[in-house]
Amino acid sequence: MAAKPLVGASAVPVKLPLAYYYGLPQSDDNPKLFKRLLSRLAVAATSRLAEDIDVKSAGMLIDTGGVPVGARVTAHYDFVAHIVSEFSVNVIVVLGSERINSEMQKRFAGQTTSVGETITVVGLDKSGGVMERDEAFMQSVRESAIREYFFGDAKMTLSPFTQQVDFAAVSIWRINEAPSTTSADSGGITYDEGETHMDMLEKAEPSMVMQNCVLAVAYASVHDTPDTIHDANVMGFVYVADVDEKRRRLRILAPVSARLGDRPLLWGSWPEHMVNLLI
After folding, report:
1. What is the dihedral of CA 200, 243, 164, 21, to 10 degrees?
2. Average pLDDT across the chain, whole number
3. CB 123 within 8 A of CB 94
4. What is the C-alpha separation between 85 and 62, in angstroms, rounded?
5. Can you give the pTM of this predicted structure?
6. DSSP output for 3-61
7. How many domains does the chain have?
8. In which domain, by residue range, is 76 found?
9. Domain final residue, candidates 82, 102, 124
10. Same-domain pairing of 180 and 80
């Protein structure tokens, strides 16, 4: 989740992109972590708006992602409500679904934002000829975006760096899915500051499972607590090109030639493993 695009090649340079790494395929895989990161993003984004009166008056456009059908739908309605609350959203646009539009109308009828504005729900039809994108297509788009992040595109070529790193020189934290009893809770999840971090992150040792994975570089110190690490925004991403368990070394592809040992790395199950970028 990001307040600005975080791809590598861009015709317009992006200054200070603000991004947080969730690292799981679905928002309800760990509702507690997803909501926590949404709240962190909201605080940071609204703070930046407060510093610029012109940007604040222009407002903010938030893409919430799709709402699925079936047993998971209630949790996703709860995520939308959380976004509306945290970002003080005053207009909700529902595209191409009468069912979701009706649910949003009922849920937000008569409600106002934290600054007293009425919340309005607007339903729009999809354009004619619109087709659903299947998972194979979306995976191809993700792989293309990752390749562009490191190497650029036809208009802008980038030169990433490869480096050999000892297992002992990196600090890697695995992002956990929530227990099944938690992820199935359709009533929504709230974060309790007194709860342990183990349902968010756990320390991980480098292994072959990480090969061809993308890891997020957290804007934190390796000496920080797990709570601080999973709350940190992202500096960028690296790609694990090879894992040599015998020599206990990783071959890492990075956008710049910085030392990885200074920053903790976040490892999630999304985006999924991809073909070797260095072939």
Report:
1. -20
2. 86
3. yes
4. 13
5. 0.85
6. SS---S--SSPPSS--B----SSSGGGSHHHHHHHHHHHHHHHHHHHHT-HHHHHH---
7. 2
8. 27-124
9. 124
10. no
User: What was the pLDDT predicted at 3?
Assistant: 59
Looking at the chain, the whole-number percentage of residues with pLDDT higher than 90 is 63
What single letter denotes the amino acid at residue 90?
N
d(CA 114, CA 111): 10
What CATH number did the domain enclosing 195 receive?
2.40.30.330
Q: Are residues 41 and 150 in the same domain?
A: no
3-state helix, strand, coil in the chain (%, to 5): 35, 20, 45
pLDDT above 50 for 189: no
Return the pLDDT at 6.
44
- The model's pLDDT over 113-143, given as tens digits with 9 standing for 90+, comes to 988 999 999 999 988 888 888 889 999 999 9
Q: Is 84 helix (H, G, I), strand (E, B) or coil?
A: helix
The verdict on residue 279 lying in a domain is: no
